[in-house]
Structure formats: structure tokens, C-alpha cells
Amino acid sequence: MAELFRYTHRVTYAECTVGDHIYHSRYLDLLEAARGEFLRSLGPTVLELQERDRIFPVIEARLRYKFPARYDDLLTIEVWVTLVERVRLNFGHRILNQEGKLILEAETFHACTSRDEKPKRLPEDLALKLKPYLNT
After folding, report:
1. CATH H superfamily, domain 5-133
2. Interval 53-77: pLDDT, tens
3. What distances in angstroms separate CA 82 from CA 20, 90, 136, one per listed residue?
């Protein structure tokens, strides 16, 4: 079994609709925050990678909403890697509330590019650090 990275987030009032649940597009922000902290935990921050002329734009995202997250819920966002290839890096995500109820499942698909959006190989050091989290 691959390792999982876990990130916690308390739902803010600003993220919610009048119906007291997270607005659907806000989940993409949560996934982005979790991926950023995941990379930080491995060593290279997103800013350091950017300074090395590597960015990872999202080229596709699939989200499956299972249950609403509500204001003040404490969420755990799990992140793992689903693909590490030359210029491709994909992540799996799962969001659970404080009771362990599944809120969302997602996968994001990324290309590794230069800042001027030309495809570039994943840095070897990063690819090695991601391997323990690879779950296909």
C-alpha cells in the first residue's frame, strides 16, 4: 500500500453557500492547498520548483461529491500519487470529515512545464521522493 499525505482544514464561513455547505468549486482550492503542503513535506516547495523553472498546471480534474462539508467541519484531505511519468504527474485525493464520512473523491492531472508552458521532464529528485506515494 502506498503512503498517504494528510492535510487538515477547518471549513470557513467564506467557503460556504447560503445552504451552509462548501460551494462546489471551493473544493479545488482545498485540493490545491493539500498538494502544496504535500510537496513542501517532500522538500521542494512549489515556489522552489517554480524558481527551477518547473510548474505543474492542472490539465484535467475529476471530482465526485459524496456528502456535503459544512461550516466549521474539520476536514482531512488525503493525497497520494497516481502517475509519475516524464512530463506527467497525477494525484488522487479523498476528503473526509471529522467523523470519517467521505465527502469527496478526486483526481487531478498535471503536466510538468517551464514557466513559459513548454513541456519539461519532472525533476529526478522529485520523482524519487514521490515514488512511496504512488498508488495506481
Report:
1. Hotdog Thioesterase (3.10.129.10)
2. 999 999 999 999 999 999 999 999 9
3. 32, 5, 5
CB 37 within 8 A of CB 45: no
Contact 80, 133 (CB under 8 A): yes
3 state DSSP class of 121: coil
Q: Where are the alpha helices (DSSP H) in the chain?
A: 26-42, 46-51, 124-130
Please state the rounded mean pLDDT for residues 31-36.
97
Quote the cell numbers at residue 8. 487538515
| pTM for the predicted model, two decimal places | 0.94
Q: Is 109 helix (H, G, I), strand (E, B) or coil?
A: strand
Q: Sheet containing 58-65: which strands, arranged edge to edge?
A: 5-10, 74-84, 88-96, 102-111, 58-65
